[in-house]
Design brief:
The chain is α+β, with helices and mostly antiparallel strands. It has 11 helices and 15 strands. It is about 35% helix and about 25% strand.
């Protein structure tokens, strides 16, 4: 793996930054400490401009090359936020905030892009400008959309933008990518089921929302298996079943279900959404109750890589790792980088984390050994797209 000597020298420092971020996780838009550390380091590196507060707590650093004959700006994006999970790694740098942890590797993503920013600010061996973009609230908060709506693309004149994510079980330091639809659209919903509460010893006087809710959960599973073409990937998962009471002798008046759907096709997406409302309502009618479905406003669209930019990213990865698969499997995971790719040409790539616990698992940890490869990828990509 051709890692530049300077980047190898920086490995220990970048690892230290990563572990500091890991010890101090912040969720959604609460990334004030992380953003402040990022901004301070960018200023210390000598970035020409450091702008904070983009998309509430996002940070953008501008690094101008030795020349700028084209006026071109290439964006490189990393996500900063953690997850509301209790950590179980047992590491000496484990989260110091109970109930929050970096279980998706955003600490590593942020550190690697900081390393690239330091190197690019030192060398400036490119023609144009690199915009390093540090984004909050990827995990369900649509931070990418917030940054785009706050003028990220137009304000900084970004002409193409790239993202990178680690992937457990892909060999450490290897890369994979695909053109077109890569990550599924995400929609989140809540179903409020209303019946008639009462004493658990007298269910005949009640409309039992627990029993009815159980039927709703089961019937919703038929939407994908019986109302969606087997040629169209789709997922419908109920992830929460909540009653208004924890008492042993109370039949609750209401039950709240929460869940998510994942789709790649717009027509399938809309059909599943309408069927959820129909199935929930009709199921509750058979029990004498009602159902109301609400959808959150921060769903994510399909994340589709642009073909030309996918090729650029694959070539940069190949120069670093010797090869890059360009037929990565599409995933029903979601990624709000989709909003940036809707606003600007670009691509999103995976870097292997090696054998590890899965993403969003309490035992997951970012593999510090892949830092040189990830940092090198950013440098190779920036210098090639802004060739001096």
């Amino acid at each position: 793996m051709p890692i530049r000597n300077r980047l190898s020298e920086m490995h220990a420092d970048i690892t230290e930054w990563r572990r500091d971020f890991h010890m101090h996780p912040e969720v959604l838009y609460e990334t004030e400490r992380t953003a402040a550390v990022v901004a301070d380091k960018l200023r210390a590196f000598g970035c020409d401009e450091v702008v904070t507060g983009i998309g509430r707590t996002g940070v953008v650093g501008l690094i101008r090359g030795k020349t700028d004959t084209s006026g071109k700006v290439v964006g490189l994006r990393a996500d900063m936020d953690a997850l509301p999970i209790y950590e179980a790694t047992g590491k000496d740098y484990a989260s110091t905030t109970p109930g929050k942890m970096h279980a998706c590797g955003h600490d590593g993503h942020t550190a690697m892009l900081l390393g690239a920013a330091q190197y690019l600010a030192e060398t400036r061996n490119f023609d144009g400008t690199v915009a390093v973009v540090f984004q909050p609230a990827e995990e369900g908060g649509a931070g990418a959309l917030a940054m785009v709506e706050d003028g990220l693309i137009d304000r900084f004149g970004i002409s193409e933008i790239y993202g990178m994510h680690n992937l457990p079980d892909l060999p450490a330091g290897e890369f994979e990518i695909r053109a077109g639809a890569f990550y599924a659209a995400i929609d989140l919903f809540e179903v409020t089921l209303t019946g008639k509460g009462g004493h658990a010893a007298m269910p005949s006087t009640c409309i039992d929302t627990t029993v009815a809710g159980s039927a709703v959960v089961m019937n919703l599973q038929h939407i994908v298996s019986r109302n969606t073409s087997p040629h169209q990937p789709a997922v419908l998962s109920i992830t929460s079943f909540r009653t208004e009471s924890d008492a042993f002798n109370v039949i609750p008046e209401t039950v709240t279900l929460r869940g998510t759907i994942r789709t790649f096709d717009a027509a399938v997406r809309e059909n599943i959404k309408s069927r959820i409302a129909e199935v929930a309502s009709m199921t509750m009618q058979t029990y004498g109750g009602t159902a109301e479905v609400t959808w959150t406003e921060n769903g994510y669209p399909v994340m589709s890589n642009h073909e030309v930019e996918t090729d650029h990213a694959a070539k940069a990865a190949t120069r670093v790792a010797g090869a890059c698969s360009t037929d990565a499997a599409a995933t029903t995971g979601g990624e709000d980088f989709a909003f940036m790719l809707e606003a600007c040409p670009g691509a999103y790539i995976h870097i292997g984390n090696g054998p590890s616990a899965g993403l969003h698992h309490p035992s997951y940890d970012f593999n510090d050994e892949i830092i040189p490869a990830g940092t090198s990828f950013w440098v190779e990509l920036a210098e090639e797209r802004l060739r001096a």
